[in-house]
Structures are given as C-alpha cells and as structure tokens.
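Support request, please re-run this one:
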Amino acid sequence: HSLIKNKMQETGAPLAGEMSAHIFIKHRYYGYDDAAYAAIRFLSILANSPTKLSQIYDELPQYYNTPELRFPCPEKDKKPVIKKIECYLQEQPDISINNIDGLRVENKHGWWLLRASNTQDVLVARCESASQEGLTLLKKELSNILEKVSIKFDA
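Re-run finished. Output below.
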C-alpha cells in the first residue's frame, strides 16, 4: 500500500487501485484505502451523473487477462531473480519496463507483471491484453523469461 500511496502523492493521482481490490482515493488526504469510503464516493458521483452505470460499463473496453499466477521461489532468491530478469529485459527491443514494484513489461500486445510476494515464498504474475491472441503471446513471453531463470510456467 505504501508504494501506491507514495506514487499517488508524487504524481497527484486522484485514484489508484490494485487487482487485489485495494482502491485508493485522494480526497482531502493523500489516499484512503477504504472499501466503504470508495463505494460511498463512487455512488455519490454516480448519483450526480446523467449517465447510467450500465451505459458506463458498456462503453468500457474489453480486456483479457490471467488470474493471479503464483510461482514458488525461496525468499532469498525472489529479489535476485527479479533483478536478473530485469537485466535480461533491458536488452530487448520494443518494450517499456516499470520497476516500481517488481516488473511491469509493456509491449504492443499488452502487459505482464512479475513481482515478489511480500507475504509468501512466491513470485506473482499477471498478463493483460486487448485481445485473446495478444494474451496468448504475453503468456508465452512470460513463460520464456521465467524459463531463463529456471522457473516453470505452463502457458
């Protein structure tokens, strides 16, 4: 949470969220992580909008993603594995890497994320694309990179 709150403060972001359903809202503070507060703020905004929730939902783009993927990795190896992958990726063309919390790798197919769990001896990953074909390619890319550090992923 602290990484997200710090980034919100640094960038002035009014809203941030995690796939784990933590939603941070900047409102007279640098970021609340409070589901009830987020729900009340959302309902307030929606109540004052002429647009129905179903219309807003129908206009959202369709994305394809994986569930959270977990790979066993000893605690002592998690950060060195992430660093080794980052070094390898820096040699790759046509990608963008964000290393705020692990590695978020973006390319023309979408993005994938690989990070060390803070609570378990695992690496956690996700992939997301605007197409099913793109998602398949991202999972293959992630599988290939994990193979380079001897971690098995059956894409």
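Residues 19 and 25 are 15 Å apart (CA to CA). The radius of gyration is 18 Å.
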